[in-house]
Amino acid sequence: MASWRNTVHSILNHFLSPFESLNISVNRVSWLSLCVSIIVSILLRTEHAILGIASIFIVLFLDSLDGFLARKRGTASIDGFIVDVACDRMSEFVIFHPHTIWTILAVVNTYVTILRIRYEKIPILPLRHVFMVITLLEIII
Amino acid sequence: MDPISHIAFSYILNLGQGSLWLIIGSVILDLDKIYTYFQRKFRGHESRTFLSELPFVCLLIGLSTILNKDFAFGIISHYILDFLVGETKPFNPFQKNIVNFNLKTNQKIVLGAIIWLVGGIQYTVF
Questions:
Q1: What is the model's pLDDT at position A2?
Q2: What are the sequence ranges of the domains in chain B?
Q3: Which has the closest alpha carbon to A93: B49, B118, B60?
Q4: At residue B31, does pLDDT exceed 60?
Q5: Which H helix or E strand runs over B54?
Q6: Between 20 and 30 A from A79 (CA), which of A16, A67, A116, B94?
Q7: Is the pLDDT assigned to residue A1 strictly greater than 60?
Q8: A41: in domain
Q9: For the complex shown, is ipTM > 0.85?
Q10: Phi, psi (rounded to 5 degrees) for B87
Q11: Which chain A residue has its CA at the smallest distance from B16's CA?
């Protein structure tokens, strides 16, 4: 699990390194990702699916960026982690509305996150990634 | 944020489709303020109990998504607005860390005014 995580981090570092010098606080990036999630929710419910998917991509990018910046600046902490995961869970709820199954999965993911805060080895479900892929497939097919 | 801002915010996010359940959902999380008010805790995370935080709120969202989606969305919009603007303990009672994005008071006032304005325009024009 650790080696897999290291591989993902090294790939992300490669893509995110141009943003290393951004003059923005890590928590503000998380805040921004939640704000973009609200826009995603509006776009998906007004049937602008392509724009919605593109915006989910921005949300996921910002979600990766906050962790990357925290690691690079040496400011990674449990407080920052909690801000990050709380933003992620809120983001899931607003993006998945009004899909019942996805919302219930987001509820499950919230409790998985609570366990993850205590036990580091428990993985959080990448629901928005899966949602993005499935929505994209629905459009293509 | 005040109840009117919560109602207006949920109304905006619900694309101008208001209902009684949406209004109830968007204010119901503040019911615990009655308890904290009598405890003389009026501001920030002190004025919130675990009933307005994610572990309980997500159960409420899950249940109400099955029963009434407008009610669920009211709750979601309420929590998001509180989370973005105020001071919360998102995983209370399991984790007591405080989250605050340090928005200045004048920024909060401007944001509240924008929400009132946009909600009002949406209600009257569309």
A1: 60
A2: 3-125
A3: B60
A4: yes
A5: helix B54-67
A6: A16
A7: no
A8: yes
A9: yes
A10: -120, 125
A11: A42
